[in-house]
Amino acid sequence: MDTAVVWFRRDLRLHDNETLVRALADADEVVPLYVFDPDEYADSRYVEEPKTGPYRARFVRESVADLRANLRARGGDLLVRHGDPREVVPAVASEYDADAAYAQTMPATEELTVENGTKAALAEDGVPLERFWTHTLYHVNDLPTPVDDIADTYTPWRKEVENGAEVRETFETPPSVPTPEFDPGDLPSLDDLGIEGRDVDDRAAIDFRGGESAGRERLQAYVWEADRLRRYKETRNGLLGPDFSSKLSAWLSQGCLSPRYVSEEVDRYEAERVANDSTYWLVFELLWRDFFQFQFIKHGGDFFGEQGIRGSAAGKEWRRDGAAFERWAAGETGVPFVDANMRELNETGYMSNRGRQNVASFLADVLGIDWRRGAAYFESRLTDYDVCSNWGNWAYQAGVGNDSRDNYFNVLSQAERYDSNAEYVTHWLPELDGLPPEFAHRPWRMDEGTQAEYGVQLGLDYPAPMLDVEEWYRMH
Ligand SMILES: Cc1cc2nc3c(=O)[nH]c(=O)nc-3n(C[C@H](O)[C@H](O)[C@H](O)COP(=O)(O)OP(=O)(O)OC[C@H]3O[C@@H](n4cnc5c(N)ncnc54)[C@H](O)[C@@H]3O)c2cc1C
Q1: Ligand 1 pocket: which residues have CB below 6 Å?
Q2: Transmembrane residues, as ranges (predicted)?
Q3: What is the CATH number of domain 212-297?
Q4: I need a surface site. Which of 29, 211, 247, 282 has the fewest CB within 10 A?
């Protein structure tokens, strides 16, 4: 064929990109295209925030800019448009007289709706849309059990996959990308996207710069230069600093990094340096990521219901307390471990996995507030937001997802275990600096004299707790 449109979605990379490789094999020239979809920047249904907040909007822009630079370095370019893909992709196909369009397929409802709508609109002009599954470690077609019948719990699913499937090899980065002449168009600014910019706080764990180049640099730095993979399993529950965990999530979410490439680097590290529980554990975590992607194919939109995939069996009643939700979101609950994590999220777009589990449990279990508001708030704030990882983990934590046990996190004992010297809470709540750890984690235990002694007045310097959380844990 003469020309194919390659519609980049959450696969903003040239390495291991089957969609691009197939299009280049089938067509003489390709028209690489990225579409900023205004719907992804529209207001959330559940919270007064845009679905994509400033940190992720910036990361996506940087990723698209990097993709364009990498295409230019291979003799090509990237056409950038702003509009509904269901209109833009067919319009571009027609403008360049394309014979076919190629794109990544994604499992979640809104993405699939857009994809199916685009396919239908292209079909009206006689242009087929070829779709490729490219964002998981295991290919959906290689699962030992058809995806609609896979187990709903992680461990049996993981064991079956590890024993019965192989990870496919990565595709090479194409050396050249022949494109026709076109006016590539400017990237929309955050203003154009309707998003108010916001600077990342200097205290951020790392600089999440978007793009395949930065993603590969981060992988190189974490695995090879800092040599941290050998200790990943012991450090992954950390809270402070760049290297307690891989920090690859944002690049994986936008497809700047392919999970298969990460796994090949782990294999290489195991061959050249060391193979141990830690090196395996990074892949184990990538399998959690896969698990939620496949669960979304199986359960689809059920993940967004207030009773999640468990339906009436979950039997949960959620409160709609706007003021309590706002305190949680702002990091003003008066429970330092919750507040420190929420402030890190608000100021940087990142929060550790340990933090996410705790703040989600606090909102859903302790405050009993509709977990979907929490999930939507994360959706807006997280740089690494991924529909399946986010809503899947939230549903799990709220007891309406892939775990039928009702197990909450006790944020007080978690704080004392994972932040024993209160370094993390005081990093994000400097107003508590100087307090001994016991009071930094439970400031309500200070009487007035102690508050005066340490110069921290509850209700003035730091909020009084919104509920007696010690009593709540005693009662549950
Ligand atoms: C309530 C809640 C919401 C979450 N929302 C998201 C989200 O929107 N996007 C996202 O990528 N992750 C999400 N996670 C999973 C996890 O917290 C992040 O992937 C992780 O903290 C990112 O940091 P890292 O890359 O350093 O992780 P590492 O510990 O280095 O893990 C390596 C990779 O494994 C994957 N991974 C690890 N844990 C999980 C998990 N529980 N579920 C799915 N994938 C996992 C990620 O791709 C991660 O980059 C969420 C977890 C919870 C509890």
Answers
A1: 236, 245-249, 252-253, 282, 285-286, 288-289, 292, 352-353, 356-357, 360, 378, 382, 384-386, 389-390, 393-394, 397
A2: none
A3: 1.25.40.80
A4: 29
